[in-house]
Amino acid sequence: MTSPIIIAVDGHSSTGKSTFAKAIARELGYIYIDTGAMYRAVALLAVRQGLISKNNTIDEDGLRKSLYGEHPAEVSFRISGAGGASETWLDGENVEKQIRTIEISRVVSHVAALPFVRSYVDRRLREIGSAKGVVMDGRDIGTAVFPDAGLKIFMTARPEVRARRRYDEMRAKGQETSYEDVLSNIRERDYIDEHREIAPLAKADDAVLLDNSDMTVEDQIVWFKELLKRRHLCGF
Ligand code: DC
Predict the structure, then answer these.
(1) Among the atoms of ligand 1, which is closest to the Cα of residue 136?
(2) How confident is the model over 107-116, as a mean pLDDT?
(3) How far, in Å, from the CA of 235 to the mean position of ligand 1?
(4) Could you report the per-residue pLDDT of 133-162, keeping only the tens digit for each?
(5) What is the per-residue DSSP string for the chain?
């Protein structure tokens, strides 16, 4: 890679964006940022403060106050030594595990649809991206946060494939859930992500599509290296 760039990896939920983005960051010696984690941390904050009712109605004034008020919550990323991966912190606590539960997955799309939450997260992401040499995965990195990113990749896979992967992952972590629940959560999140008013999930015109339904992680890395060669971005 000649001079460092921003690589935007957007796409549907549970397409393995983070696995792919982490791997290419490692290949390039870049920092990896999981932008969904920041929305998850804000959702966790809202849940902990009792700002979300059972039918997913959010106390918007309360959450706005928590993010922008006199004593705003601090959501941040800290880069861990090993591999340059980021960890998510909320008010001085490492919440990497707490933000990955099905409870948070159920409410996070609703929280991420709020304009004031999006501008809160966007501001932090632009600060981090200003140094370049970063791979960010998310939903709107190539369309809204960094429309001038040096390379944009849009990932997708069939919903059933995504649900199976996510289900296996959750079971391996000992989380009780059913395949049907996971599949319906994925379909619901796709719908909300694609239909929200601000920065809906969409492939940027200049993004390269990666459908990894029938690809292993290794296949995807080979694909990525070919892409860099084609774009004259690196001489692997
Ligand atoms: O990738 P994930 O499942 O951890 O993302 C969590 C939620 O955050 C998901 O509902 C979409 C939203 N999100 C977003 O709106 N914009 C991003 N850049 C990243 C995530």
Answers:
(1) 18
(2) 93
(3) 32
(4) 999 999 999 999 999 999 999 999 999 999
(5) --S--EEEEEESTTSSHHHHHHHHHHHHT-EEEEHHHHHHHHHHHHHHTT-B-TT--B-HHHHHHHHHSSS---EEEEE-TGGGBEEEEETTEE-TTGGGSHHHHHHHHHHHT-HHHHHHHHHHHHHHHTT--EEEEESSIIIII-TT-SEEEEEE--HHHHHHHHHHHHHHTT----HHHHHHHHHHHHHHHHH-SSS-S---TTPEEEE-TT--HHHHHHHHHHHHHHTTS---
